Amino acid sequence: MATAQEKATLSQTASENSISSKSSAAAMATLIHDSLSDSAPSATTKTTAATPVMSRAQTCHPLDPLMAAEIAVAVATVRAAGKTPEVRDSMRFIEVVLVEPDKNVVALADAYYFPPFQPSLLPKTKGRPVIPTKLPPRQARLVVYNKKSNETSIWTVELSEVHAATRGGHHRGKVISSKVVPDVQPPMDAEEYAECEAVVKDYPPFQEAMRKRGIVDMDLVMVDPWCVGYHSEADAPRRRLAKPLIFCRTESDCPLDNGYARPVEGIHVLVDMQNMVVIEFEDRKLVPLPPADPLRNYTAGETRGGVDRSDVKPLQIIQPEGPSFRVSGHFVNWQKWNFRIGFTPREGLVIYSVAYLDGSQGRRPVAHRLSFVEMVVPYGDPNDPHYRKNAFDAGEDGLGKNAHSLKKGCDCLGYIKYFDAHFTNFTGGVETIENCVCLHEEDHGILWKHQDWRTGLAEVRRSRRLTVSFVCTVANYEYGFFWHFYQDGKIEAEVKLTGVLSLGALQPGEARKYGTMIAPGLYAPVHQHFFVARMDMAVDCKPGEAFNQVVEMNVKVEEPGKDNVHNNAFYPEEELLRTESQAMRDCNPLSARHWIIRNTRTVNRTGQLTGYKLVPGSNCLPLARPEAKFLRRAAFLKHNLWVTPYARDEMYPGGEFPNQNPRAGEGLATWVKQNRSIEETNIVLWYVFGVTHIPRLEDWPVMPVEHVGFMLMPHGFFNCSPAVDVPPSTGDCELKDAVTPTKPIQHPLIAKL
């Protein structure tokens, strides 16, 4: 809950905000009336001569993630709706997520019930604001897999404040809808993976194959189940399949031993995950296990057989007066930025309602929703089993469900605010990842500086950024997902890649051009990592408005002639992207290509349309032929940028169920065939960015972090730099010489003399 000081500050902020357009106020009034017209006034509402006032506050913002109790109620409601005990016992719960309400409901909540408290958004009657008696009840959406029938179904359950707790074990939800989705397989679950590993290790032919390789202790064996993807009709979703990769530890009594250092190749295993049985097994080729690599481990000091550096001095990050951010529930306020934090099992971190408080102009929206919606990791080795390694880590596994508790290690430093995340497990129980999302401030070097050479006067400001992040592990790889907010109005999206390489074994004397040998008998295949950011933009759009467009900017070199007599001229040239087909675009560093999201109705002091621009970082496209099997499911990788008008059901670029998906081009590549207009509407950007990983010896045994991402930068959004009012640093900035060593550093040969 917010403190009294926070509430006072937020109320003052709200009083500064206003809607400049009468049309948007009218649209807002219509939207709110439509969304609440079926809600009867509450009996507990008190009425005064001025305006209706609620006697009881709403407990959850419409965008708050589901509470643990709400998840339990949703699961119990669906289970109770099963027609027979057999159906109920067969239910497995893939995910339970909030049904995100219409944007007008969010605006209503922000206007009256929750921060940022913008009463100016309320519709008015006879000069007075109309305050509805309550918000619509929250709803949960459940993806349920029936282990008996191999069917996937989607359920919608209505929740309310009363329903958000169980009484005597009875459910308190209401089923709004349910439907079976044919010909799909939902994401895999960690419980299935653990059961699959046990089934494979207990399979006698597998044990015999391991004995041929000198392994009799099954405790050494690691079985990593991978989804089969879709390569032929044999992978069709009529069966729920996994094709495991096998590894072997060197020491069974050492939990710190890096088992990924010894891949087991030549064994083909296919597991029916519905019935948990091995349905195909073949020991195709006896590839010797790589010898134990003395450099395989990465844990501290003696536990890896090494010695840690002794000359690293402590570096302390302290904020004696506390942080500059304020948090009320999931609402964050920092340095004129404010937004809401959400979390889903599939995407992980979600950022909602991003806006900037811009003086007399009030709260100016930038984006409605920001998240990473998909990942694809295709490998470039045509040999078995590597050609089948095409992981959809969000759609097949779930980034959020694989997130870490950040209580372990030093993922974040400084004064930290953590947020927990709640999920359902496979059998319907509720699990909590404590300290799952990290919110903290970071020093980011110089923000700006100038020294007047005539007067010698210098002004310098240090940059501070607010970082929201989470980290997940998907098998051997770790991914950190970050959203950084800056004092100069920038928003940066960043992914940090680390973890352990997925390796292959080589025959004695064998070499492969599709990767790097990193140790005797051990090789790392080339691969790529692609990420898709979905950005539901709202640049300077109040609720009810849809006034955004996208312009592509390329820098052109002027042709020789009278306008370029010195042959040095170049200029930016813009092109309005009018339709979805026109907006399938790729990065081009040769022309400094970027894209600007503009508001078509708002101008700055020079008369230019206000906007934010998407600036690519390093990027790539798939290094595969168009006929590659993984591109059937990942057609969205063929371009770096896609633009669509907002549609509620268009959330995931590969469709909702990419696991074993036999339908070519489902999702984004199919939606854009409608070729809808994007000239002035609610714009959704899909930015695809990635990295091509050619492994190095220095990536072993654990990979130093590699960074990839992009920037959203104000472009004519402000009338001048918003960073000019950042005050000089009040920290410990006086000049200090480095401590002089007590002994002079000498050349070793001179020291001997």
* Main sheet overview: 10 strands, antiparallel
Shape: globular
The helix count comes to: 11
Mean pLDDT: 88
- First-residue to last-residue Cα separation: 70 Å
Total strands: 36
Assembly state (oligomeric): single chain
Kindly describe this structure.
The structure is a single chain. Helices cover 13% and strands 35% of the residues. It has 753 residues and is mainly beta. The longest helix is centred in the first third of the chain and has 15 residues, at 22-36. 40% of the residues are buried. Its cofactor is Cu cation; Zn(2+).
Short summary:
By secondary structure, the chain is mainly β. It contains 11 helices and 36 strands. The strands form 8 sheets. It has a 10-stranded antiparallel β-sheet with strand order 21-22-23-24-25-36-33-32-30-31. Strands 15, 16, 17, 18, 19, 20, 29, 34 and 35 form a 9-stranded antiparallel β-sheet that branches. The protein has a 4-stranded antiparallel β-sheet with strand order 3-6-7-8.
Which terms summarize this structure?
mainly beta; ten-stranded antiparallel β-sheet; nine-stranded antiparallel β-sheet; about 15% helix; manganese; peroxisome
Show the helix and strand layout.
Blueprint: H1 4-16, H2 22-36, E1 46-47, E2 52-53, H3 68-80, H4 85-90, E3 91-98, H5 103-113, E4 124-125, E5 128-129, E6 139-146, E7 151-158, E8 174-181, H6 190-201, H7 204-212, E9 221-224, E10 241-242, E11 245-248, E12 263-264, E13 267-272, E14 277-283, E15 326-328, E16 331-334, E17 337-344, E18 348-357, E19 363-378, E20 390-391, H8 393-397, E21 417-424, E22 430-451, E23 458-474, E24 477-486, E25 491-499, E26 504-505, E27 515-519, E28 522-525, E29 527-537, E30 548-557, E31 570-577, E32 594-603, E33 609-616, H9 630-633, E34 641-645, H10 668-671, E35 683-693, E36 703-714, H11 748-752
Antiparallel strand pairs: 1-2, 3-6, 4-5, 6-7, 7-8, 9-11, 10-13, 11-12, 13-14, 15-16, 16-17, 17-18, 18-19, 19-20, 19-29, 21-22, 22-23, 23-24, 24-25, 25-36, 26-28, 27-28, 29-35, 30-31, 30-32, 32-33, 33-36, 34-35
